[in-house]
């Protein structure tokens, strides 16, 4: 496991308005997870991102 090196928006701020500055949607990530696994989840759509949110113990974006 790599250490976190960046802060990612759990819900992509270019797709979901109003999440950029909402810290509850920020997650620590390493560059390889952000560029690989997270991009694949985003490509799979909102249901996949909601599932990740639940896995991280967060309520999905409504």
Brief sketch in words of this structure:
37% of the residues lie in helices and 13% in strands. The chain is built from three helices and two strands; from the N terminus they run E-E-H-H-H.
What does this 3D model show about the protein?
By secondary structure, the chain is of the alpha+beta class. It has one domain. 37% of the residues lie in helices and 13% in strands. The protein has helices spanning 31-35, 37-44, 46-55, and strands at residues 6-9, 26-29. It has a two-stranded antiparallel sheet. The longest helix has 10 residues, at 46-55. It starts with 5 loop residues before the first strand and ends in a 7-residue tail after the last helix. The mean pLDDT is 93.
Percent of residues in helices comes to 25-40%
Class from secondary-structure proportions = alpha+beta
Mean pLDDT: 93
What's the total count of β strands?
2
Poorly predicted sequence stretches spanning 5 or more consecutive residues: none
Spell out the helices and strands N to C. EEHHH
Query: Radius of gyration, Cα only, in angstroms?
Result: 11 Å
Shape: globular
Secondary-structure blueprint:
Blueprint: E1 6-9, E2 26-29, H1 31-35, H2 37-44, H3 46-55
Antiparallel strand pairs: 1-2
Provide the descriptors you would attach to this structure in a database record.
62 residues, alpha+beta, single chain, two-stranded antiparallel sheet, 3 helices
């Amino acid at each position: 496991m790599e250490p976190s090196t960046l802060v990612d928006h759990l819900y992509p701020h270019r797709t979901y308005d109003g999440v950029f500055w909402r810290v509850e949607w920020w997650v620590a990530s390493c560059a390889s997870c952000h560029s690989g696994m997270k991009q694949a989840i985003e490509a799979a759509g909102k249901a996949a991102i909601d599932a990740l949110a639940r896995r991280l113990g967060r309520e999905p974006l409504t």
